[in-house]
Amino acid sequence: MCGHFKVIGMYESFEDSSMSLKKFSIALTVFLAMCLLWTTQAHAVRLKDIAEVEGVRGNQLFGYGLVVGLNGTGDGIMINFTLKSVANMLERSGLNISTQGLQVRNVASVMVTATLPPFARAGSEIDITVSSMGDAKSLQGGTLLMTSLRGPDGNVYAVAQGPLAVGGFSVEGGGDAAIKNHPTTGVIARGAIVERTIPFDLFQSKRVRIVLRQPDFTTMTRIVEEINQDIGAPLAVAIDSASVEVPLRGAFAEDPIGFVSRLEQIHVQQDTHAKVIVNERTGTIVMGENVMVDKVALAHGNLSIAIRSETQVSQPDALGGEGATTEVVTNADVQVGEDVNGLTVVGGKVSLGELVDALNALGATPRDLISIFSALQRAGALQAELEIM
User: Fold this and answer.
1) What's the N-to-C CA distance of the chain in angstroms?
2) Which domain holds residue 38?
């Protein structure tokens, strides 16, 4: 609409002011170039949204701890490691007790997990997740005691402690029970303090390597072209379909952080695979815009069987004679039906919207479409990768 309006405006200006043909041609050329640039940018994404800088990543941490202060919803006496953990903790506090006959229904053994973000410094606070290990009913109202969080190398990188936030509850009484969400897992926002940093020099190699989250040769080629065009030199080199490398030279080496920020803001038109993803458990179907189906004739029918039973009780009259008894009669009704659908032409050189309309014209449910796409792939008519989750 915008482009159409502008062109009309130019013609009117040409007629009113007798603009020369040369000036009008220049204006029209500039306008078409702007429209082409706007169309390209509309489908482009920032490099930081589809790729990551190699080396900038988090690290997994975990630790074993105890949650105390539970209202009788902790581990039972059959969980031996909880009893031993409580005894060891009290022994370190100067109390030597035996685990025999010890009951700790207000204590639960838990595993604490966290992700140490990149470039985290000592004193930074990170979020943690606390999960029950034993047979605790709920962690609601509990407090995590000081727990060391270790990395894969065995070193302690953070220490966690604090009250849990559990987004659920578990209540039992009188033989009834009510459970909401998952009460045996909780979180503590900023519940761990970083004690050690992971030494890493991002720019030690004097280069920056950017890695695509979804490797693709076409997208990588476009990334290399856009980077070289932005920095004004053919420095970017594609290593493979997933990574591109740019050396740090001159002014880029003096300000590598600013250079990485500049690269992240470059817009690239991402190319995607033709793929159909279906989840048979939930009936979810997702199709990419490049999905094509060869022209085929397709019919899909559903066979349905419904069985309904109704129980009727025949009660004798109050003045009935001897031998009159209550009779229970079960009536069953079985109905069988099948949808009759004619052949429908599907596919060809059409857009994704037209393909969806053609499939919807069959009157098929999402679960029916899963069977349809499987049949189309076996027939060789589905020009896309079918991924069943």
Assistant:
1) 41
2) 2-42
* Same-domain status, 164 and 258: no
Query: Looking at this protein, which amino acid is placed at residue 86?
Result: V
Judged against a pLDDT cut of 60, whether residue 99 lies above it is answered with: yes
The token duo for 136 is 């605790």
Other Cβ atoms less than 10 A from the Cβ of 313: the count is 8
Only one residue has tokens 């502008």, namely 6
Judgement on whether residues 81 and 167 belong to the same structural domain of the protein? yes
Residue 228: alpha-carbon gap to chain centroid: 33
4/15 Cα distance (integer angstroms): 17
Would you state the structure tokens that stand for residue 133, as one six-digit string? 């290990």
| Number of separate domains in the chain | 4
pLDDT digits (tens, 9 = 90+) for 16-32: 444 555 554 555 455 55
Which residue type occupies 63? G
CA distance 271 to 95: 66
Q: Is 338 within the bounds of a domain?
A: yes
Which residue has tokens 């220049």?
26
The identity of residue 42, as a single letter, is A
Q: Do 84 and 6 belong together in one domain?
A: no
- Residue 321 counted as domain residue: no
Alpha-carbon distance 251 to 184, whole Å?
54
Model confidence pLDDT, tens digit, residues 263-273: 999 999 988 88
- Residue 150's alpha-carbon distances to 22, 155, 162, 211, in angstroms, are 73, 5, 18, 28
Model's pTM, two decimal places? 0.65
Question: What distance in Å separates the CA atoms of residue 123 and residue 196, rounded to the nearest whole number?
Answer: 9
Is residue 180, in this structure, part of any structural domain at all?
Answer: yes
Pairing of strands 143-150, 207-212: unpaired
Looking at the structure, tell me whether residues 187 and 77 fall in a common domain.
yes
User: What angle, rounded to 10 degrees, do the helices at 256-264 and 217-231 form?
Assistant: 130
Same domain, 282 and 265: no
Q: Which pLDDT band holds residue 5 (cuts at 50, 70, 90)?
A: very low
- One domain, residues 238 and 340: no
Q: What is the pLDDT at residue 169?
A: 64
Contact 184, 111 (CB under 8 A): no
| Residues 61, 54 contacting (CB under 8 angstroms) | no
Vertex 239, ends 46 and 43: CA angle to 5°? Answer: 25
Distance of CA 349 to the CA centre of its chain: 32
